[in-house]
């Protein structure tokens, strides 16, 4: 099927009623979802032949330029439907994700079975496909259906491959979390050592101060020793504070990575269910 001419490009966004029982191309179920809505519209004659449904999956989809200023027909009163308005280009800002994220894969879910996998198909394309199908013979319809079944099997294999890739992404995320936990453990040990050193230095400073008050004859000598110990205390306190700041940062990084892993785990579980539902839809059978 060739692309529409320039005179028809402006009408690509029109939501015309979908024939009863007709599925959208490429396995889209939008036609079925709008079945109840299209019964209230008289803009197009209904198609009652249920045998037309399965042979429309391989029809091409026109993705030419769309005119946003062209008024919509089909009972819309000249108003533009927000669900079919052309999506303008959006300039994305520089990513602000932390470098500690587990993985960048599957952040928006499955690319084959997720919500972004459903194409936007104009109702006029579906209606024209249904009209064209009525002129096909039984043999031609059977040939098209067999080809669609082969495409469905190929897509099912791709879904299986994607599932394995997502499992690998989750495994990498878990490894990243384990590595961060090791760093957190080392930071905690360093904090413990710093606390012990600081406590030891504090005891030494207190002892030096006691000696200073007890031996005024050696005041200058003991005072110098006391000042030295106080400097050591300040140095150890600075070290302790630095290590505590490091521990707090590691706590935040571990918590962030843990949330990311949990989100990926939930997303994977959702994607697995969507894949199985997609396989049932494509292959027409349940395990």
TrEMBL record:
Q: Which residues form a coiled coil?
A: 233-267
Note whether Coiled coil occurs among the keywords.
yes
> Which regions are flagged for Polar residues bias?
1-19, 37-57, 92-101
Region annotation (Disordered) maps to: 1-101, 136-155
- Source domain of life: Eukaryota
Q: Which keywords does the record carry?
A: Coiled coil
* Protein name, entry field: DNA binding protein Ncp1
Task: Give the compositionally biased regions (Basic and acidic residues).
Answer: 144-155
Q: Does the keyword Coiled coil apply?
A: yes
């Amino acid at each position: 099927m060739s692309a529409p001419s320039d005179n028809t490009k402006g009408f690509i966004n029109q939501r015309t009623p979908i024939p009863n029982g007709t599925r959208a191309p490429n396995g889209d179920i939008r036609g079925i979802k709008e079945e109840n809505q299209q019964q209230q519209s008289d803009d197009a004659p209904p198609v009652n032949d249920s045998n037309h449904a399965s042979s429309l999956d391989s029809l091409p989809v026109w993705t030419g330029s769309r005119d946003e200023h062209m008024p919509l027909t089909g009972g819309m009163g000249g108003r533009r439907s927000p669900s079919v308005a052309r999506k303008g280009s959006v300039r994305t800002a520089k990513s602000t994700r932390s470098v500690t994220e587990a993985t960048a894969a599957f952040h928006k879910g499955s690319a084959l079975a997720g919500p972004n996998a459903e194409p936007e198909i104009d109702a006029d394309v579906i209606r024209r496909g249904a009209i064209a199908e009525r002129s096909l013979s039984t043999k031609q319809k059977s040939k098209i259906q067999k080809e669609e079944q082969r495409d469905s099997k190929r897509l099912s294999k791709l879904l299986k491959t994607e599932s394995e890739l997502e499992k690998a992404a989750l495994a990498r995320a878990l490894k990243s979390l384990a590595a961060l936990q090791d760093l957190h453990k080392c930071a905690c040990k360093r904090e413990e050592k710093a606390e012990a050193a600081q406590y030891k230095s504090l005891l030494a400073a207190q002892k030096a101060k006691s000696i200073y008050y007890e031996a005024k004859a050696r005041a200058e000598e003991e005072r110098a020793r006391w000042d030295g110990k106080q400097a050591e205390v300040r140095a150890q306190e600075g070290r302790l504070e630095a290590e505590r700041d490091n521990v707090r940062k590691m706590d935040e990084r571990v918590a962030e990575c843990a949330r990311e892993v949990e989100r990926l785990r939930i997303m994977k579980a959702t994607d697995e269910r969507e894949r199985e539902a997609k396989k049932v839809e494509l292959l027409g059978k349940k395990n």
